[in-house]
Amino acid sequence: MEGDVHFEEGTPLYLQVSRHLQRLIASGSYPVGTLLPPEADLATELQVSRHTVRQAIAVLRRRGLLQARKGVGTRVAAVEDDWRTRFTANTRGDLFDFASATELHIEKRDMIEARGRLAAEMGVRPGRKLYYMAGPRFMSGDSIPFCFNEVYLDPRLKPVVAEIDVLRVALFTLVENHTGDRVEEIQQEVRALHMPELAASYLGRAPGDLCARMTRRFNGSGSRLLEYAVQYHPGDTFSYQTTLSST
């Protein structure tokens, strides 16, 4: 296997292994159509457990880079994932993977009061003060953003992000670590509407262009709001995919 994997603290081991495998796929070490080595061989070579390898492969399967077939093995299906044009998030782990593969550049910060439609959407009392952040989101290494993000937090959580200019992890995990309250439910909605001026200015679109607006309400214990996040995706580059069980 070409290249070495250097494990670092702070990032789950399975994600580091998945990134290592993705680099090998991108470099051509594992061309499209070929099979990955068996899990046991990868575990031995990388000096990790088979469970870690299995988790890493699951990440790349969700991103469309790998396909597994019982009795055959795990085959390389694509060189790059396509978060830019395909968004799949059906689990908490999917959101973690998405955040790890992208960068949110925080360029606006403010204290606001939630009123009118915003307060109703968030399910908070009108006039509630919130810490607001906004900015474009990029695929790691890209120079052109693929969506625009807005985030609303309880003002007491400001210290969590006050010193962060580029966010490369799932914000809700930082919130959990700070508060000790685990996110128990994530309410998600996708709606088609006209792109607001601020999002359009960062995405190089015209205000009023069709876009997909995705909102997520992260609830802690007792349905307490920990985070409210909004993403704007250009309508002509966005699709949402999910798989329905036949059972």
Task: Please describe what this structure looks like.
The protein is an alpha+beta fold and 247 residues long. The protein has 2 domains: 64 residues, Arc Repressor Mutant, subunit A (Orthogonal Bundle), CATH 1.10.10; 143 residues, Chorismate lyase-like (Chorismate lyase, 3-Layer(aba) Sandwich), CATH 3.40.1410.10. The protein is built from 8 helices and 10 strands. The strands form 2 sheets. Strands 3, 4, 5, 6, 7, 8, 9 and 10 form an 8-stranded antiparallel sheet that branches. Strands 1-2 form a two-stranded antiparallel sheet. Helix 1 packs across helix 3 and helix 2 crosses helix 3.
The biggest sheet, with number of strands, parallel, antiparallel or mixed sense and barrel status, is: 8 strands, antiparallel
Number of helices: 8
Radius of gyration: 20 Å
The N- to C-terminal Cα distance equals 40 Å
Give the rounded overall mean pLDDT: 87
The CATH class of the largest domain, by name, is Alpha Beta
If you consult CATH, what is the topology of the largest domain? Chorismate lyase
